[in-house]
Design brief:
The chain is mainly α. Helix content is 50%, strand content 10%. It has one domain (31-200). It has helices at residues 28-32, 48-52, 54-69, 75-82, 87-107, 143-146, 148-175, 180-200; strands spanning 3-6, 18-23, 35-39, 41-42, 123-127.
Length: 214
C-alpha cells in the first residue's frame, strides 16, 4: 500500500495529533477502479473505555444496519431486464454502503466516533454511477461465481485482520494509540472488500476487482 500524510490545513494543538492519511492520488489502481475508500488515521490518544466495550456499543447500530441491507440487492432484476441502474436506487445503495463502512471502521477500532447515519466522519468512500447500457445485462447472473478467487483471498485477509484486531485492542488499552501499520492493513482489507462488493453484489461496475490492498 502506498500512503502519504497530509492535511488540508495546519494541525492545531487542540486536534491532539489527528492526521489524515490518504492513498496516493497517483496510484493507478485507486484512480482506475470505480470504488474507492480511505479512512483517516487518528494518531491522538484513543478512548480506552469505548474501545474496551466496543462490542456492546455496536449492538444498537448493528440492528439499524441489518434492516437497511435487506433491500440493497434486488437491483439484479433491474440490470437483467432493463440494463439500467436507477439513480435513486444507486444513491440509496451508496448511502447504505457508506453507513455500513462507518460501522465497520468503528468495529475495527479505526475510529472512536460512533457511526453516523448520514455524516461522512472519518471514512471517505466513492462509487461511480454506471451510465445506462454500461453494465452487461447477463453478468449479474455469474458475477458472484467469477468473484470466488476474491472470496478465498478475503477469507485469508479477514483471518489475519481478526488477529490484528485483537492485537490492536490490547495495544490501545495499554498505550492509548492504534499502531499505524495495523491501521493501514485494516483499511486495505476494507478497500479490497468494497471493490468485491461493488462488483459482485452492488453491481455498480463490470470491471473485475484488482487483487490489491491499495
Amino acid at each position: 500500500m502506498s500512503y502519504h500524510v497530509g492535511t488540508a490545513r495546519s494541525i492545531s494543538a487542540s486536534e491532539e495529533g489527528r492526521i489524515h492519511v490518504t492513498s496516493d492520488s497517483q496510484n493507478p489502481t485507486m484512480a482506475a477502479y470505480p470504488a474507492t475508500l480511505d479512512i483517516d488515521y487518528d494518531g491522538s490518544s484513543r478512548n480506552r473505555l469505548t474501545v474496551f466495550f466496543r462490542v456492546i456499543t455496536l449492538i444498537p447500530i448493528l440492528l439499524v444496519m441489518s434492516g437497511l441491507q435487506a433491500v440493497m440487492y434486488p437491483i439484479i432484476l433491474m440490470v437483467l431486464f432493463r440494463q439500467k441502474y436507477p439513480r435513486w436506487w444507486f444513491d440509496f445503495n451508496l448511502e447504505v454502503t457508506k453507513f455500513s463502512t462507518r460501522v465497520g471502521a468503528y468495529w475495527l477500532l479505526l475510529t472512536d466516533e460512533y457511526p453516523s447515519t448520514d455524516k461522512e466522519q472519518t471514512t471517505h468512500l466513492t462509487l461511480d454511477y454506471p451510465a445506462q447500457g454500461e453494465l452487461n445485462r447477463w453478468l449479474p447472473l455469474i458475477k458472484w461465481i467469477l468473484a470466488i478467487p476474491h472470496y478465498i483471498v478475503l477469507s485469508v485477509l479477514l483471518t489475519i485482520s481478526i488477529v490484528l484486531l485483537l492485537v490492536a485492542w490490547v495495544v490501545i488499552l495499554i498505550t492509548g494509540k492504534l499502531p499505524q501499520g495495523i491501521h493501514k492493513f485494516l483499511v486495505g482489507v476494507s478497500r479490497c472488500s468494497l471493490r468485491v462488493q461493488a462488483y459482485a453484489f452492488l453491481l455498480t461496475t463490470d470491471k473485475y476487482p484488482p487483487f490489491s490492498l491499495d
